[in-house]
Design a protein that fits this description.
alpha/beta; flat
Length: 348
């Protein structure tokens, strides 16, 4: 039918009518099979539980002791909820993924689940957000949540998690997530093998609202670590470039040990001329402070500079589109659909 369709002109009404009748007949056959539902051997096999692999991250010295303390807390049978806090851009997400990877390597858990919950800053997304958490955990466990209501899904997930040796990582919490409503064991008499590691910018939120028993602060990278991370992205050649090195050092200082700022600027300046580096340093130094809640001025300044130097209006439009989409992973096919619908591409 596909070959026939390719041969048929959109203006050949008779041929298109015949093709439509064929399609209708085949559709009726499919409907009949669906209604009969006679599949004694099933129609597919259930997928095995998904496994999560986190790529290797740099184990900076300033974070090594914190990572070690978190792993010790995970091994403590009395500790079920662990908090990690620090300002935006300091590297909480990177550390959380290190924790999950360490837990996997040390065989502390049968399953590790990482969920970003940035949506918690928006009150109207709580119900959908809780449902997304349920679905994500269920997929990692190979569990089918066929029931429709949130309450029924909660009960089914709770029943399963009480039997699991699992690590659940909730990243970027802005407001309280009611773990019981999601179906995550949270009470003292519940499964002690269900551990939660939670990250937020506010320590009080983790302790008072989320019930974290211990909390660990994440500090800025040290100067040597910042320079190492920067060189890893732009290349070691910057160390041997006598003309560029002093400017590069000053650029790194402007990032103030914030990993997101370092990575953003390093990627933007890689392979650029010395003049471009000096111009970037000047703009970073004069960037105006902001009053955006929980956003560091240096992080904002670096992101603003990076945006202003994106090559082309199409790229800038895609950047803004990504910022307006729901928090979390952005699927490439969805991004392309939105971009095409908004007519962001001039030559397509």
């Amino acid at each position: 039918m596909k070959d026939e369709k390719n041969k048929i002109s959109c203006f050949n009404l008779k041929s298109r009518y015949q093709l439509g009748r064929q399609a209708y007949k085949k559709a009726q056959v499919i409907v009949g099979i669906q209604e009969a539902r006679d599949f004694p051997d099933g129609i597919s096999h259930c997928l095995p539980p998904r496994t999560v692999t986190f790529k290797e991250y740099e184990a900076f010295e300033s974070r090594a002791s914190t990572l070690s303390k978190i792993m010790d807390a995970l091994k403590d049978k009395k500790t079920k909820k662990i908090g990690v806090w620090g300002m935006g851009g300091v590297g909480k997400t990177t550390l959380l993924k290190q924790v999950a990877e360490q837990g996997k390597q040390q065989n502390l858990f049968t399953t590790q689940v990482y969920v970003q919950v940035s949506w918690t800053r928006e009150a109207d997304k709580i119900q959908q957000g809780n449902s997304d958490i349920q679905q994500h955990i269920a997929e990692m466990l190979g569990l089918k949540l066929e029931v429709q209501t949130i309450l029924a899904r909660e009960g089914k997930l709770m029943e399963r998690l009480k039997k699991e040796k699992i690590l659940i990582v909730l990243d970027d919490i802005w407001k309280e997530v009611n773990l019981e409503e999601v179906g995550i064991p949270s009470k003292d008499d519940d499964n002690k093998d269900c551990k939660k590691v939670m990250a937020s910018r506010e320590e009080d939120l983790l302790r008072k609202d989320m019930g974290a028993q211990v909390c660990f602060p994440i500090q800025h990278l040290q100067e040597k670590e910042s320079w190492y991370l920067f060189k890893k992205i732009v290349g070691d050649s910057v160390e041997n470039n006598v003309e560029l090195r002093p400017t590069a050092r000053e650029v790194v200082k402007e990032c103030q040990g914030l990993s997101v700022a370092i990575v953003t600027i390093a990627k933007a300046l890689k392979d650029e001329s010395v003049a471009e580096w000096k111009n970037a340093l000047h703009e970073l130094r004069i960037s105006a402070p902001t009053n955006i809640r929980e956003v560091d001025d240096k992080v904002y300044g670096c992101l603003e500079w990076s945006y202003n130097h994106l090559k082309g209006d199409e790229v800038k439009s895609l950047f803004l589109l990504c910022g307006s989409l729901p928090y979390g992973d952005i699927w490439m096919d969805e991004l392309l659909s939105y971009a095409m619908g908004l007519d962001l591409f001039d030559h397509i």
